[in-house]
Amino acid sequence: MFESPPAHRQGRVSAMVPRCSDEDETVRTMSNELRIEDLRVAIEGKEILKGVSLTVRQGEVHALMGPNGSGKSTLSYALMGHPSYEVTGGSVLLNGCNLLEMEADERAKAGLFLAFQYPTAIPGVTVANFLRHAVTNIRHPDRKEGEDLIPMREFRKELRAVMDELGIDPEFARRYLNDGFSGGEKKRAEVLQLAMLKPAFAILDETDSGLDIDAVRLVSEGVNRVVQREGTGVLVITHYQRILNYIKPQFVHILLGGRIVERGGPELVEILERDGYDWVRAKHPVEAREAEELEAAHAGADSF
Ligand code: ADP
Ligand code: MG
């Protein structure tokens, strides 16, 4: 199988930015923001994101919207450090630290949480067990593999309280993570992670697709809860406006052909709901054409 070097290890992007280790407390507390600047990302040599800039401060809710194929998921995969997504330019700083130089687990420890459209199943690992490991690793970033987890009693108590508050059946914690889960159950697992991990920043990609209204509500309540209580900064990535009726963004960005072409407040959500994306394409014909060309070049494959 062909393997390209991981984008975040290629080291040509923003080499001047500190990578931040545990000693760099001063750098880390410098700014409470996720700052994406002029980010360029290519898949298999083809540029998909063509200079995206977007800053999310803690406690803010942003929505990144755009028609299918505009590059929304490309942004979330690049921020995760997926090896197929090559960062060819720009920078991403998380509280002043160079996110693109971090391994996936370092990104999580630095306070970034990513929820995916299609989460992986882990048969044999229960939701509770998975969460206990995840919570321990985030709260004790220096812990070595094999060292103690947070005490079971303490963890159970906390988990039960959070599940209770989110209205999730306690039995759910005993199931294998995402194994045979319905769309709604996957979201439940995600929201539970979010509430337990209390990340500084959360990115949720297409969290509403294929969900019934109860599941959308559950996700939204969970997200709103961490925003209010923990000051989590949230980027909701979505094609549809529906979830944004429950998670109210203060800032809305519209992506087309790999570029943010419109920015505004919640009124943009209403306009898209009423008029769709045609006016965006008409107003930005160059980006619309590039989006079409990309889509045609990649025709047949599933957009994810
Ligand atoms: P969105 O999430 O906004 O629907 P994506 O980020 O999934 O968009 O896709 C952006 C563009 O990248 C699309 O034109 C898509 O066809 C293209 N693309 C996605 N995956 C690949 C790939 N593996 N190779 C080439 N192009 C791809
Ligand atoms: Mg997508």
CATH fold type:
Rossmann fold
State the name of the first-level CATH class: Alpha Beta
Low-confidence stretches: 1-15
CATH homology group: P-loop containing nucleotide triphosphate hydrolases
Instruction: Please tally the helical runs, counting DSSP H or I stretches of 4 or more residues.
Output: 10
What's the SSE blueprint?
Blueprint: H1 25-28, E1 33-43, E2 46-57, E3 61-65, H2 72-80, E4 85-94, E5 97-98, H3 104-109, E6 112-115, E7 122-126, H4 127-139, H5 152-166, E8 176-177, H6 183-197, E9 201-205, H7 213-230, E10 233-238, E11 251-256, E12 259-264, H8 267-275, H9 278-283, H10 285-297
Parallel strand pairs: 3-10, 3-11, 6-9, 9-10
Antiparallel strand pairs: 1-2, 1-4, 4-5, 7-8, 11-12
The structure holds adenosine-5'-diphosphate (ADP) and magnesium ion (MG).
Describe the structure.
The chain contains ten helices and twelve strands. By secondary structure, the protein is an alpha/beta fold. It has one domain: 3-Layer(aba) Sandwich (Rossmann fold). Strands 6-9-10-3-11-12 form a six-stranded mixed sheet, sandwiched between helices. The protein has a four-stranded antiparallel sheet with strand order 2-1-4-5. It has a two-stranded antiparallel sheet with strand order 7-8. Helix 4 runs parallel beside helix 6 and helix 6 packs parallel to helix 7. It is globular. The N terminus is likely disordered. Bound molecules: adenosine-5'-diphosphate (ADP) and magnesium ion. Adenosine-5'-diphosphate binds next to strand 2, helix 2 and helix 10.
